[in-house]
From TrEMBL:
PANTHER family: TRANSCRIPTIONAL REPRESSOR FRMR (PTHR33677:SF5), TRANSCRIPTIONAL REPRESSOR FRMR-RELATED (PTHR33677). Keywords: DNA-binding. GO terms for molecular function: DNA binding; metal ion binding. Gene3D superfamilies: Metal-sensitive repressor, helix protomer (1.20.58.1000). It holds the Pfam family Trns_repr_metal. GO terms for biological process: negative regulation of DNA-templated transcription. This is DNA-binding transcriptional regulator, FrmR family. It comes from the Bacteria.
Length: 89
């Protein structure tokens, strides 16, 4: 699967945030601030996961409708996407 530029940029931002948290820990910053930044990292990762799953779902549906003239049963793709999202938590 080809990943778009936006998702890669999200992950680079997450990488920078993780380095920032390590610096905060080395500087012995307050745990409340560290946890706040870790929560931001988790939320950013969740958004990246959702973006990847959505793009994959769209790709699968478009490929299936393009390869067959029959009507599409998209419920299996939606179930797979939901399973991926649930598994990521």
């Amino acid at each position: 699967m080809k990943y778009d530029h936006d998702v890669k940029m999200r992950l680079k931002r997450i990488e920078g945030q993780a380095r920032g948290v390590l610096n905060m820990m080395e500087q012995e910053k307050h745990c409340k601030d560290v946890v706040s930044q870790l929560t931001a990292i988790r939320n950013a990762a969740d958004r990246a996961i959702a973006s990847i799953v959505a793009a994959n779902l769209e790709k699968c549906i478009l490929e299936d409708t393009g390869s067959s003239g029959a009507s599409l049963d998209s419920s299996k793709y939606v179930k797979e996407a939901v399973d991926l999202l649930v598994k990521s938590r």
